[in-house]
Write a structure and sequence with these properties.
The chain has two helices and eight strands, in the order αββββββββα. The protein is of the alpha+beta class. Strands 1, 2, 3, 4, 5, 6, 7 and 8 form an eight-stranded mixed sheet that branches. A hairpin with a 4-residue loop joins β4 and β5. The longest helix has 19 residues.
């Protein structure tokens, strides 16, 4: 069964992908910092980051679940969610595949290769849905 996405989510996701392609135009130094983070996938298929945010423009300094993760570059230590860029610091030390409680949701910790593959596939899907 194919999953349905709202037109709003498709638009937001594609705007975030566009931001990744034009990231030199953004003040990444002003992005909130995510420490002790872990990428997780929940039963609904959403992929997001769970970790400690510092200088988040809405939430301040607290433990958060981000909006849907769109892109992550470990070498550059930067990630993009549907809503914003994050600077990445220390990744949490959870074994790949383990279950973690991300707020009110339980998610499975994704390994780097699996995450990269899933994000690439999701980006291709959302680009296709935009057309």
């Amino acid at each position: 069964m194919a999953r349905r996405y709202t037109a709003e989510l498709v638009s937001l996701y594609n705007q975030a992908l566009d931001a990744v392609e034009q990231r030199e135009k953004f003040d990444l130094a002003a992005a909130p910092v995510l420490t002790g983070y872990v990428p997780v996938k929940v039963a609904t298929g959403r992929i997001f980051m769970f970790g400690n945010a510092t200088d988040h423009p809405v939430l301040g300094d607290t433990l958060i679940s981000t909006s849907d993760l769109v892109w992550l570059e470990h070498d550059a230590k930067i990630a993009r969610t549907v809503s914003r860029f994050y600077k990445l610091e220390v990744k949490a030390d959870f074994p790949t595949g383990s279950l973690v409680s991300a707020g009110h949701l339980w998610g499975r910790v994704l390994g780097d290769e699996e995450l990269e593959y899933m994000l690439r596939d999701k980006a291709a899907l959302f680009r296709k849905l935009m057309n």
